[in-house]
Amino acid sequence: MSRNVSIKYAIDWTTVMIYVVLVVMGWLSIYGASYDFDQTSIFDWQQRAGKQFVWILTAFGLAGIILLIDYRMFNYFAYIIYGIVLLLLIFTIVAPHSIVPDIKGSRSWIVLGPVSFQPAELAKIATALVLAKYMSGYNYKLKTWKDLFPLALIIAIPFGLIVLQKETGSALVFVAFLLMLYREGMKGIVLLLMMYAILLFVIVIKYSIVHLSGAEGTVGIIVGMGIIILVFFAY
């Protein structure tokens, strides 16, 4: 069977169509939210909807190229891609403001002339590639803490770097990897405790500077202590 035929039958076309519908709906929503009476064309690249259309076409083009690449290439370069993405995440933290400006309090976008991109989005893909490569190793089984520790480290490093960028929303996406680990054999109690730990970490970081009125301490510390107490009495 030729590669073209195998790709045709290997793709989950139902999922692809659902994705396309969601992309189009998002594009129309951007057009409606940024509508300008002076420039009404949805394909005007100087407006947000037009720029989004360009990125949509670019994404579909990249998806087609990725489908034509042998999957073994991703397996071979997984750790290299992961390392490069980690360097980009570190760069966003230490780079000058002319390259990585503060946008709504976070430093997560690298600006290169007219083009800007967010390494946190690449980190999600790179982390998934490394997890898949590591777990596909010969006779690997997720049964003990010793098996879990490397996987937790792979997830925790980009998660922590993204939190340092003050991009909490993107960091929370990494919680979805815990569901994958649970499906692969991780004990339910481990999933629950790890979700508690992430929740505690995010709350303390986000609200550590919000002081209580008329009392000592911060909202983050008080809520964090409350979570610890609830978990303690629950078990």
Commentary on this structure:
By secondary structure, this protein is mainly alpha-helical. It has eleven helices and two strands. Strands 1-2 form a two-stranded antiparallel ribbon. A hairpin with a 2-residue loop joins β1 (110-112) and β2. α6 (119-135) runs antiparallel to α7 (145-164). The model has no long low-confidence stretch (mean pLDDT 79).
Topology:
Layout: H1 3-10, H2 13-33, H3 48-68, H4 71-76, H5 78-94, E1 110-112, E2 115-117, H6 119-135, H7 145-164, H8 168-172, H9 176-183, H10 188-207, H11 219-234
Antiparallel strand pairs: 1-2
Helix pairs in contact: 2-3, 5-6, 5-7, 6-7, 9-10, 10-11
Number of helices: 11
Mean pLDDT, to the nearest integer, reads 79
Q: From the structure provided, what is the oligomeric state, counting identical versus distinct chains?
A: single chain
- What structural class do helix, strand and pairing data support? mainly alpha
The biggest beta sheet is recorded as: 2 strands, antiparallel
The coarse silhouette is: globular
First-to-last CA distance: 56 Å
Strand order of the largest sheet: 1-2
Rg over alpha carbons: 22 Å
Fraction of residues in β-strands: under 5%
Number of DSSP strands? 2
Order of helices and strands: HHHHHEEHHHHHH
Low-confidence stretches: none
Portion in helices = 55-70%
Task: Give a summary of the structure in a few sentences.
The protein contains eleven helices and two strands; from the N terminus they run αααααββαααααα.
Please give a handful of descriptors for the protein shown.
2 strands, 235 residues, mainly alpha, globular, single chain, two-stranded antiparallel sheet
